[in-house]
Specification:
Strand content of chain A: 5-15%
CATH architecture of the largest domain in chain B: Up-down Bundle
Number of helices of chain B: 12
Radius of gyration of chain A: 21 Å
Largest interface: A-B, 41 and 42 residues
Strand order of the largest sheet of chain B: 1-4-5-8
CATH architecture of the largest domain in chain A: Up-down Bundle
Order of helices and strands of chain A: HHHHHEEEEEEEEHHHHH
CATH superfamily of the largest domain in chain A: Butyryl-CoA Dehydrogenase, subunit A, domain 3
Shape of chain B: globular
Helix content of chain B: 40-55%
Structural class of chain B: alpha+beta
Mean pLDDT of chain A: 96
Order of helices and strands of chain B: HHHHHEEEEEEEEHHHHHHH
Mean pLDDT of chain B: 95
Number of domains of chain A: 3
Distance between the termini of chain A: 32 Å
Low-confidence stretches of chain B: none
Low-confidence stretches of chain A: none
Strand content of chain B: 5-15%
Oligomer: heterodimer
Largest sheet of chain B: 4 strands, mixed
CATH class of the largest domain in chain B: Mainly Alpha
CATH topology of the largest domain in chain B: Butyryl-CoA Dehydrogenase, subunit A, domain 3
CATH topology of the largest domain in chain A: Butyryl-CoA Dehydrogenase, subunit A, domain 3
């Protein structure tokens, strides 16, 4: 499967400009991923998925992202939701996959003010939920919601809430300068009732037994998605950075300066290429190590402690920082000749920067929180 | 099949068992580190603890009672030890790695060192102060000073790096084994960092070294010495001259962990002048987080490269120029990351840290000294890797 992902890179690279211009991943790309089973890597086996170790997302992302960051982002975001649903209430899994085990789920966040309120037997949702990466191909949306406290006091409860696509309209509001091709549009809901069993509090997804792990016994469904699962955003960043480095290695190997000296022989070029390479490999090693550590804890029947969870988020954000730094280090090597709309490296540069703005990989936030946890202070984020 | 996690030696310990033992050393070694620095050598108790635990035999051939453990085991053990005392970890990896290098030499050389004493330790040295060898009938003759002999206080042998003049010009880089009776130790190690390694020089006067005690590093790198050594285990296919061991980066990661431990300990219990707990300062939190992430990334990178080396060794293939260049690049980059980590933490220690016994400041000094070792020199290994990345022929004679 990794070899097949690698073989797709030239084709993805060829279509990346179109994806960016259309603000959507081409349907051929989606179908290619779908035919290879990429979206099913973490889906439970009882619904025809592969139930693979979470490191697989990093390994596939590291390949696909080399061709098109946006396509890779759609891959990882749809694939991760199939994992998260595997941890959800069995009834919710049946709702989504009972009739169609190939059904896909996007996700969204109420950045533009979507609200839920409690109702008899569930929640009522109203307003906009944003950043729904994969919404063009999804049959469901797993919205992040903040449920008001029952008695009106205390903080709201963070949950995921599943809605079918018949319950929302897509709003075409994705005009990002980076990861443009993801088409991460908003969805709009008007008085939508969401039954209780389709909602799950994030406190039940902190590692260890989950509601879904009763029917999906693999260790994967006892790994915490909100902390370890943030690989969904780091994996494309890793692939994008690898792609940017590969482009420049090939280009500089064949380019001379105005003084007709081979660029590849300039020590300044060599230092940039070497350091970017080392940064990217360090990011990859760190991501895979955390995946392996989390799987080992789950396989031994253990439950990760908050220090693990905060560290995984920190490392994940740091890996993205390393990828961003790598492409920043390489950027001067493009030269003014690269300043064209179709330049692949500069698209990757825009994409990796856009990826790094996702909140779970935002270094300032994750570093402060991890530092607090190291000093024994309470977490600032309820999802850690 | 060996996966590098268990010794092939009957009844030998596992990776996990060795790691558990290493963790019991961290605190006592830390407690002695200040005195060791003052003495410019590690304590005899430290050496004996390493010897008794069999740590020096980690990469020795099973035939002589060694463990033939993976580079990964040696890395992880060196990190735990280095967390307590960087110099002790350095002594451990340098002696243990020499046992792995002696294992590359001809069987007779191995018998010379271990046949009568399989606890014999070997240090190594480099002719930085101008030691010279010349070719004679049946071997070479050595004269002069060889330096940086980390572990010389405890060693029975020294495996010197020598440049043997070639007929018609040029030199061959060899390792040359000499027993301690053949050299005199010169007390010239007055370094500001890694002080306790006591990496003194040795002096030789007209010492004959027979041919069978020489090892061509070029041949060893290409796997051409395996048959004569009669050591066929996975680690001997991916020896230190390929850049597969983490002899220097392992201790460095340990030192950085130790520095981070010291800061976390200190800041958790300290208020600033305004009475605000240091731990609640956002700037302190970010520094601790970034240092932690850098150190973990460095360690993860080294673990991954060790695991890849083990796979290559077990598969039975030999290393390529690209394998070696990227291992060396990553190895020195792990050093860059750890230096960055302690530099990020440095402002948190405050002027109160400016005392000889500060654990943080010792780790800081040690790490800066350790990264001067030529295998850790980023500029050099970055360029060598970039040549491969950019499709140029390698310019490093040891590529």
């Amino acid at each position: 499967m990794i070899a097949r992902a690698r073989a797709m890179v030239p084709e993805l690279l060829q279509r990346a400009l179109k994806a960016e211009q259309d603000r959507a991943v081409p349907r051929e790309t989606f179908e290619m991923f779908s035919d290879e089973g990429f979206f099913r890597i973490h889906q439970p086996e009882r619904y025809g998925g592969f139930g693979w170790d979470i490191g697989m997302m990093v390994r596939l992302g590291a390949e696909l992202g080399q061709g098109c960051g946006s396509s890779c982002w759609i891959f990882s975001n749809l694939a991760v939701q199939n994992w998260i649903l595997g941890m959800n209430n069995p009834e919710a899994q049946e709702d989504v996959w009972g009739d169609n085990p190939a059904a896909l789920i996007a996700s969204s966040f109420p950045a533009k003010g979507g609200k839920v309120e409690r109702a008899e037997g569930g929640l009522i949702a109203n307003g906009l939920w944003s950043f729904a990466s994969g919404v063009d191909f999804a049959d469901w949306n797993n919205m992040q919601v903040f449920v008001p406290p029952e008695n009106g006091e205390g903080p709201p409860e963070h949950r995921f809430a599943l809605v079918p696509k018949s319950d929302y309209d897509i709003v075409d509001d994705w005009f990002s300068p980076g990861l443009a091709g993801t088409g991460s549009r908003s969805i709009s809901l008007d008085n939508v009732f969401i039954p209780e069993h389709r909602t799950i509090p994030s406190t039940k997804l902190m590692g260890g037994p989950s509601p879904g792990s009763e029917i999906n016994p693999g260790a994967l469904y006892r790994v915490p998605p909100l902390t370890l699962g943030t690989k969904v955003f780091a994996s494309p960043a890793l692939g994008i950075a690898k792609g940017g480095l590969a482009l420049l290695e090939a280009e500089l190997g064949a380019r001379n300066t105005v003084g007709n000296a081979p660029m590849a022989e300039l020590p300044t070029v060599q230092m940039r290429i070497a350091e970017a390479g080392a940064e990217i490999e360090a990011a990859e090693a760190l991501l895979l190590k955390d995946c392996a550590d989390a799987m080992a804890i789950a396989e031994a029947g253990g439950v990760p402690v908050i220090d693990d969870r905060a560290r995984w988020r920190r490392n994940n954000a740091f890996a993205v920082q390393l990828c961003v730094r790598a492409l920043e280090r390489l950027n001067p090597l493009v030269g003014a000749r690269g300043l064209t709309p179709e330049n692949d490296f500069l698209r990757m540069f825009r994409d990796v920067h856009a990826a790094s703005l996702q909140i779970t990989v935002a270094w300032d936030i994750q570093s402060v929180n991890a530092g607090r946890i190291r000093f024994g202070l309470p977490s600032l984020d309820p999802r850690v | 099949m060996a996966d590098g996690s268990k010794s092939p030696h009957a009844g030998g310990p596992t990776h996990a068992e060795l790691l558990e033992t290493a963790k019991t050393f961290t605190e006592p070694f830390r407690a002695r580190a200040g005195d060791a620095e003052k003495d410019r050598r590690v304590h005899r108790e430290t050496h004996e603890a390493l010897l008794d635990a069999g740590f020096y035999r980690m990469q020795m051939p099973a035939r002589y009672g060694g463990m033939e453990m993976s580079h990964r085991t040696m890395l992880d053990v060196s990190v735990e030890i280095g967390r307590g005392c960087g110099s002790s970890s350095w002594i451990f990896t340098n002696i243990a790695a020499q046992n792995g290098i002696v294992a590359m030499a001809a069987r007779q050389a191995q018998d010379d060192v271990w046949a009568n004493d399989n606890y014999a330790c070997t240090a190594s040295s480099f002719p930085a102060k101008g030691g010279k060898v010349e070719r004679v009938d049946g071997g070479i003759v050595a004269n002069g000073v060889w330096s940086f002999a980390s572990g010389v206080d405890w060693a029975d042998w020294n495996n010197m790096q020598v440049f043997v003049p070639r007929d018609g010009g040029g030199v061959d880089h060899n390792m040359a084994l000499v027993p301690k009776a053949d050299y005199r130790v010169i007390d010239d190690w007055n370094s500001p960092g890694l002080v306790a390694t006591g990496s003194r020089s040795i002096e030789l006067e007209n010492v004959f070294i027979p041919e069978h005690r020489l090892l061509s590093t070029g041949a060893a790198r290409e796997g051409k010495t395996i048959d004569a050594s009669e050591n066929f285990g996975p680690i001997f296919r991916v020896p230190p001259m390929c850049g597969a061991n983490k002899i220097f980066s392992g201790p460095v990661i340990g030192m950085a962990r130790g520095a981070l431990d010291a800061i976390e300990r200190d800041l958790s219990a300290r208020n600033n002048v305004a009475g605000i707990p240091m731990a609640t300062l956002t700037t302190a939190q970010i520094r601790v987080a970034e240092a932690g992430a850098l150190i973990e990334a460095a360690w993860a990178l080294m673990q991954r490269d060790c695991d890849v080396a083990q796979e290559i060794g077990e598969f039975g293939r030999l290393t390529t120029v690209a394998d070696r260049a990227f291992w060396r690049r990553n190895n020195s980059y792990a050093g860059v990351m750890c230096v960055k980590a302690v530099d990020i933490l440095h402002p948190l220690i405050g002027a109160r840290g400016l005392v000889p016994e500060s654990d943080f400041m010792r780790a800081y000094r040690d790490i800066h000294a350790a990264t001067m070792q030529i295998n850790m020199a980023w500029d050099r290994h970055a360029i060598s890797a970039a040549e491969i990345q950019l499709g140029l022929p390698p310019t490093d004679p040891r590529a």
